[in-house]
Every structure is written in structure tokens, then in C-alpha cells.
């Protein structure tokens, strides 16, 4: 179940003070105020992500969304924001951020499952980038490196997938790369002095790429919803007043009498998050 944050407004104490025209417009006024608040909440959660995580990817920054089906309507005065639960060809943020929100043991990544299926990793092992090995701008193992590792270790298991190296393609690549000093990836044999993991061999030089470890455990550090609650309490009343005065201006322009439609929001307002 993906995490969602919802908030609703209770303005019953104000409704009794309002003229008929205003009472009729309360649902649309509140709907617009809730949706504007939710849009602000999305940006607040994104700012929180940028502050909590070290160099989050653009996809992670965009993980908090306010889909159309979760917007408030006149008949359902509640708005919800959520962590994206879909991803094109990858793991959705609602899954890989789950442990960051609630804490707990990390789930295996796709490439780890592939290495397990291929027998490269044990069922209880997880992989961490080795200290000093090159990473991308976001601190992660570069995608092409993961692909090369899976290919050379014959870990692509999808039916019809053609990226596993054959003996012939391996020889051809070794010739093509001879002058480019490209590395070969391997896993040490049992009994080796090298720690279990994936290593890169370039000539006579061997460098650790991935180290196999026990299942990592995360502490909860992304308090999803805290920024939303704080933002909602700051901005909802202002948005509601803005929408109210817009409706008041419309009503005023439609009347021929004196401008006697003004109404202050002096009553108590309760916002639940």
C-alpha cells in the first residue's frame, strides 16, 4: 500500500454566519482551497526530500504527486497527495522509499534478484557499491555498469533476452577493448582471499565494484506528511479566504443593491491533516 496523506476542512462554525449565496458556494470554495493547498503540499514534500537525501535523482524528487483522481470535489471535500506507485521499466518510489518512510530492512533491487537467479549471489546476500568505485552524479552505480556486470556474469534471465555474453561475443569484445583498457567483471571463487563481491580486472589490476553484505536495515528518516501538515495549517485559511472573496466579487457584480455582501472570517477554523 503506497503512503498517502489526506486533509479535509471543517468550516461548520462559519457556515451559520454566511448569507444564502455564500452557503451555496461553500463546496466549490472549499474544493478550490483544498486543491491549492495540496499543490503547495507537493512542493513542500519535494523540498523535504531534497533536504533529507543526498543528491536525490530527479525521479525521486518527482515522487510526490497529486493525481487528478485524488483531488477534492464539491461532493468529496478531501484532497490527497501520494508517493508515485508506478514507474516505466523500474521500481516505483512508493516501494523504494517505503523503508525511508517507515524504517526496516531493505528490499532486494532488480539487479540483485538477477544475480541471485544466476547463482552469482546467495539468496540472503545484498550488494553495496564498493568504496572508491566510480558512481554517477547521484551517488549510484551507473546504469551501463550494472548492465555490463549482468551481461558478463550471464545474469539476464528474461526469455529471449540477448544481452548475456556468449563465448564468441566475449572474445570479440576482448579484442575490441584491448586498446581501450576496459575491465572484465568477475566473482572470486570460494576460498579466495578477496571478500565476496563483484570485481573489475583491468590488466593485472583488480578493483572491487560491489561488495556482498547481509540485508541492510534503514531507520525512518523521511517523515512523509510532516511537511504537508505544516503547509496545510499555514496556507489553507488564506486560500479559503481568497476563494471566498472571489465568489463575493462575482455575487456583488450580479446585484444592483449596495455592496453589503462583505463577510470576515472571524469564526474558528479547523483543518485536519
Plain-language structure description:
The protein is of the alpha+beta class. It has 2 domains: 4-96 and 222-272; 107-215, no CATH class. Helix content is 39%, strand content 16%. It is built from 9 helices and 10 strands. The chain has helices at residues 12-15, 20-52, 58-61, 93-96, 98-102, 110-117, 143-152, 167-176, 226-253; strands spanning 4-10, 64-65, 78-83, 104-105, 126-129, 184-186, 197-202, 205-213, 217-218, 270-272. The strands form 3 sheets. The chain has a 4-stranded antiparallel sheet with strand order 2-3-1-10, with helices on one face. A 4-stranded antiparallel sheet has the order 5-8-7-6, with helices on one face. Strands 4-9 form a two-stranded antiparallel sheet. Strand 7 and strand 8 form a beta hairpin. It starts with a strand and ends with a strand. The relative contact order is 0.19. The model is unreliable at 159-163, 173-181 and 256-273 (pLDDT under 50).
